[in-house]
Write a structure and sequence with these properties.
With 357 residues, the protein is α/β, with parallel strands linked by helices. Helix content is 35%, strand content 23%. It has twelve helices and 17 strands. Bound molecules: S-adenosyl-L-homocysteine.
């Protein structure tokens, strides 16, 4: 057992089974044994890779879309340029490079990063040092002001709850202990749940649905700030409007494994449902765009022209890698369709370029 599995087993033995989201939160952000707490998980030597680590084009185009949204909102000065879960800082570094020639953007930008991981904060400090970032533990800690925000693969790392349909009620997935004292999955007795009443229409006996309480709360906080102070948010993640079934995924060394195999040492994620984020945004007084496939979003922003311009200076293996990266970001069988983009923006304004109202 990993040290975290032993600690959780002691806790469960003492006070009873815990819901999946408590288990997932401990695995990812436990102060000592959490997956993100102690390591930089990205890249070929790590456990997984992400769009900004695949190609600079991703951050460049996202940055230009965000800067255009800033111009369209009257170029407020100062404003908060914010990223949630910035990883190694690669995405924001690409945003900054691409927006250098947007008149006034860098002067007005105050860089605020929301990050739990100390090793990743250190990596971000190195990459983004010229732009003097300020770090925060949560969105609630951000100062007030016009908010221009990006997030890539942030929401998928937040802890989910899972519920299984039983009659008109729901049982919740719990982490309990098996005969040997090791953590195992189980289900709570079914009960009706007002928050899931809307899922009685599209589910059958035994179906599993997922709820991400922190994601919905974060979307509401972002939308409330944008409604009050102006701004725009571009959220990118794997998922769709609404999921059905168990999407919890555990990955270590680029290979899938059982979520209970190595608590604290494997990356746990789940698909992002954009519907609850959109509902939270509406409730907080902001608008949201349609959910758009990443490949379509990047094509609309001109990734093919950018790829050709970069290709002109490349040859041999570097050119091959560049062509493969372009395909990986946009092709329907790679990340192009699985990953989706949605904006949150003020009511009565257009979404950032690349997205439809
Ligand atoms: N956006 C980066 C990294 C994605 S990995 C990229 O695209 O490469 C997820 C990121 O979210 C990491 O930086 C991780 O440390 C951060 N993170 C995970 N859970 C978090 C939480 N609860 N609060 C703040 N940041 C979190």
């Amino acid at each position: 057992m990993t040290p975290l599995a032993s600690e959780l087993a002691r806790q469960i033995a003492a006070t009873g089974p815990i819901p999946l989201n408590q288990f997932m939160a401990a695995c990812l952000t436990h102060p000592v044994h959490g997956y993100y707490t102690g390591r930089d998980p990205l890249g070929a030597a790590g456990d997984f890779t992400t769009a900004p680590e695949i190609s600079q084009m991703f951050g460049e185009l996202l940055g230009l879309s965000l800067a255009q949204a800033w111009l369209d909102r009257g170029a407020p000065n100062p404003f908060l340029l914010t990223e949630l879960g910035p990883g190694r800082g690669t995405l924001m570094a690409d945003v900054m490079r691409a927006t250098k020639s947007v008149l006034g953007f860098h002067d007005a930008a105050r860089l605020h990063l929301v990050e739990v991981s100390e090793p990743l904060r250190a990596a971000q400090a190195k990459t983004l040092q010229p732009h003097t970032p300020t770090w925060h533990d949560t969105i609630a800690d951000l100062p007030d002001g016009p908010l221009f925000l990006i997030a890539n693969e942030y929401f998928d790392a937040l802890p989910i709850r899972q519920f299984q349909r039983m009659g008109d009620g729901w049982s919740e997935k719990m982490v309990a202990l098996d005969d040997t004292g090791a953590p195992c999955f189980g289900w709570s007795p079914p009960a009706p749940l007002a928050d899931l009443a809307y899922r009685l229409d599209d589910t059958q006996e035994g179906d599993i649905v997922e709820v991400n309480p922190v994601a919905a709360q974060d979307a509401g906080l972002i939308a409330g700030r944008i409604a009050a102070h102006g701004g725009a948010a571009i959220l990118v993640d794997y998922g769709d409007w609404r999921s059905l079934g168990d999407t919890l995924q555990s990955v270590r060394n680029h290979e899938p494994e059982h979520p209970l195999a190595n608590p604290g040492n494997a990356d746990l994620t789940a698909q992002t449902d954009f519907e609850p984020l959109a509902l939270a945004a509406t409730k907080a007084g902001a608008a949201h765009s349609r959910v758009t496939p990443q490949g379509v979003f990047l094509e609309r922003l001109g990734i093919t022209a950018r790829a050709q311009a970069l290709a002109a200076n490349l040859s041999g293996p570097a050119l091959e890698a560049h062509i493969a990266a372009h395909r990986r970001l946009t092709h329907p069988e790679e990340m192009g369709t699985l990953f989706k983009v949605m904006s949150i923006h003020p009511i009565d304004t257009a979404p950032p370029p690349g997205l439809d109202p």
